[in-house]
Amino acid sequence: MAYYYPEPCRTFNEYLLIPNYSSTDCVPSNVSLRTPLTRFRKGEKPAVSLNIPLVSAIMQAVSDDGMAIALAKEGGLSFIYVSQAIEKQAAMVKRVKDYKAGFVMSDSNLRPDQTLADILALKEKTGHSTVAVTDDGTQHGHLIGIVTGRDYRVTRMDAATPIRDFMTPVAKIVFAPEGTSLKEANNVIWDHKLNTLPILSADGRLIALVFRKDYTSNKENSLELTDACKRYMVGAGINTRDYTERVPALVEAGADALCIDSSEGFSEWQKITLGWIRDRYGESVKVGAGNVVDKDGFLFLAGAGADFVKVGIGGGSICITREAKGIGRGQATAVIEVAAAREEYFRKTGIYVPICSDGGIVNENHITMALAMGADFCMLGRYFARFDESPSNKVMVGGSYMKEYWGEGSHRARNWQRYDLGGENMRLSFEEGVDSYVPYAGSLHENIGPAMHKVRATMCNCGAVTIAELQSKARITAVSPMSLTEGGAHDVYLKDNTGIPIK
Ligand code: IMP
C-alpha cells in the first residue's frame, strides 16, 4: 500500500515569522549574510561561501557570463546554464574568470585607411562613439590612434576622409601599460582629465580601455565574491550524461563550483556522476546535486558526497512538472524536512551539508522564510530573468517592457538531459516548463540592494544578525486562509499613481 504523508505540503506564503526580542545591536548594518556553499566538518570553515545567500538558476534565460559577473559583484554566484555545447559553456566560465572590472575589450575598431563613413556606420551599429584605430582593425591590433565624437564634424567633412587624417594619433594619447590596476588607471584618468585610457602591451597592442564614466560602478563593492586571485567566482551546471567531457572542460576553464542540473536528484545517475568526480578530482572539485524534496533524497545525495543539496520539485514559476507528472512537493514543506535531515546528519557525522531552496521565490520575504526554515541559500530564476543582465530579450508587450523567460523543460530550451531517466530515448518527449514573459525590472544592482536590506531588516526583527542565528531563533507559524487575506492591503480603496481612487 502506498505511504500517505499525515500533513498536506505547504508553500512559503502559508507561513509567517513571529518577531523575537531584538537588542540595540540588532540593526541591518550589523547583519552578515555570509553563508556556506559547500560542505564542511564541524569546527572547520567551508571551502566556498557566498556573501549574499543567492545563486542564479541553471537556465538559458538566466545565467550566462554577463549575469555571473553582475551577481558576483553583489556577493552571489551564478551557475552558467548547461543546456549548450560544452565549449560554449566553458568559454562563458572563462570569460567570467578573465573579466577585470573596469577593463573593457574594445568593440569598435577600424583601420587608419578606413573612412569617416565607416566610423559613422560603426557608431550606428554599436552605439559607442569611441573607436580604437589599430593597424589591422582588430580589438588587439597595434594601436595607431583613437577617434571620438570630438575628432570630426559630419557637416563639414567629406565622408570619404580617411581616419588617419582626423584621428588623435597614439603619440598624443595618454596610455597605461598592461598590468596597470584599476585604481592606478582611474588615477591616471583623473590626473589627466581623460575620458578614455587605453591599456597597451609592451609592443603597443591594445589590451583594453578604461572609461571615466564607469568610475562609480567600478568602485569596489565590499561584498564582491572573488577567489584567492581576486577573480570573480562562477559556478556551472553539469548533467549526468556528458560529465566525463563537460566536467574537465569546466574545471579547466576555472569554474569554482559545479552543480548537477536535474529535475529529480534521488537517482543512481547522480551517485555515479558524483562518484566519478570524486575518483578523478577528490575533494578539489566542488559539486552540488539535486533536486530532492525529502529526508531520504537528502541522505542519499549527502552520502554520495554532494557538496550541497538542492531542494525543490515543481515549485518553479515556469514549471509544469506537477501538472505534467503529478510529482513534487510544496516548497516550504520540502525545505523544512530536508533541513531537519541535514541537522540530524550533522549531529551524527559532524559534516554540515548546505542546502539550497530552488524555485518558487515570488516575494523577497520568501528568501528570508527559506533561510529561517533552514536553507543556507536560495536559487532563483524568475527573479533574475527580469534584470538587464539576464541573457534573454527585452520586448514590449501591451505597452510594458518584459523580458522573456522560459523553462529548461520547455520546447524552447529542450534540455532533455535535465529530465532524462536513462535509456536511449534522448529527447524531450513532453514539456515540463513553459515559455513566458516576466516584467522587466532594470538592473540587478538597483534591485538587489533593497532586496537584501529587506532580508537584513526581517532578520533583525527576529533578533538575528547571522543566517545561522536566524535558523536557530526563528519562530514560524502557519497561517489560515483568512490571515492571508488580512496580510495584504484590505478594506481600503487603493489609489493609482494619479491620486484618483480606483474601485
Ligand atoms: P523560479 O525561481 O520560480 O523561476 O524557479 C527556477 C527553478 O525552476 C530553476 O532553478 C529550476 O530548478 C526549475 N526549472 C527550470 N526550468 C524548469 C522547467 O522547465 N520545468 C520545471 N522546473 C524548471
Question: What can you see in these coordinates?
Answer:
With 503 residues, the chain is an alpha/beta fold. It is built from 16 helices and 24 strands. The chain has helices spanning 65-74, 86-98, 116-126, 182-191, 215-218, 243-253, 268-281, 295-303, 321-325, 331-349, 364-372, 382-385, 416-419, 444-461, 467-473, 481-487, and strands spanning 15-18, 35-36, 40-41, 49-50, 54-56, 77-80, 109-110, 131-134, 143-147, 168-169, 176-177, 196-200, 206-211, 235-238, 257-260, 287-292, 309-311, 351-352, 355-358, 377-380, 394-397, 400-406, 435-439, 475-478. The strands form 7 sheets. An 8-stranded parallel barrel has the order 5-6-14-15-16-17-19-20, surrounded by 7 helices. Strand 5, helix 1 (65-74) and strand 6 (77-80) form a beta-alpha-beta unit. Helix 8 packs across helix 10 (331-349) and helix 11 crosses helix 14. The chain starts with 14 loop residues before the first strand and ends in a 16-residue tail after the last helix. The relative contact order is 0.16. It binds inosinic acid.
Oligomer: single chain
Number of helices: 16
What small molecules does this complex bind?
inosinic acid
Give the C-alpha Rg.
Answer: 26 Å
Main β sheet profile: 8 strands, parallel, barrel
Shape: globular
Percent helix among the residues?
A: 25-40%
Count of individual beta strands = 24
Class inferred from helices and paired strands: alpha/beta
Across the major sheet, the strand order is 5-6-14-15-16-17-19-20
- Residue-averaged pLDDT, rounded? 92
Task: Show unreliable segments.
Answer: none
Distance between the termini: 53 Å
